[in-house]
Design goal:
This protein is α+β, with helices and mostly antiparallel strands. It has a single domain (4-116), classed as Pnp Oxidase, Chain A (Roll), CATH 2.30.110. The chain is 18% helix and 46% strand. It has helices at residues 4-10, 12-22, 63-70, and strands at 27-33, 39-48, 54-57, 73-77, 94-105, 108-121, 128-134, 138-144. Strands 1-2-3-6-5-4 form a 6-stranded antiparallel β-barrel. Helix 1 packs across helix 2 (12-22).
């Protein structure tokens, strides 16, 4: 099981930036798999807790909770914010976390983290820089122009 604390130890700078992308606004976007195999996109609140875990909370009876109980694969995406047009390299970036949801208590799930991704404008302003963290592999950075 991989916790957020594990990501912070393995890749502290990436973990800090991704956490800040999720703090931009209250609601993030979550993707789950519905009973018929199609994706479901939902708004959700993401909690980076003091115990080093990432939690997703849901209202009682939420269909997305049923999705996670049946198929625990989950992806969350930080609140979307555009890069400033006058200084795109100052943009914090776009954070994503994927993994498997484990019900910690009724309608509250923690994420067993598999991947953490940060996409941002490259330092020279030409293209994107994508940082990908995987447990046991560390961070790989890819540049797209």
């Amino acid at each position: 099981m991989t916790s957020w604390a594990d990501v912070e130890v393995s890749a502290p700078d990436l973990a800090d930036t991704v956490r800040r992308t999720f703090a931009i606004r209250k609601h993030a976007t979550m993707a789950t798999v519905q009973l018929d195999g199609t994706p479901r996109i939902s708004g959700t609140e993401v909690q980076f807790a003091d115990d080093g875990e990432v939690y997703l909370g849901m209202m009682a009876g939420a269909r997305r909770a049923d999705d996670l109980r049946r198929d625990p694969r989950v992806a969350i995406h930080c609140p979307t914010e555009d890069a400033p047009s006058d200084n795109p390299t100052s943009w914090l970036g776009d954070g994503k976390i994927t993994g498997r949801a484990i019900e910690a208590e009724l309608d509250r799930f923690r994420i067993d983290i598999e991947r953490v991704v940060l996409t941002k404008v490259a330092r020279d302003g030409q293209g994107l820089e994508i940082s990908l963290w995987r447990a046991g592999e560390g961070v790989t950075v890819v540049r797209r122009t």
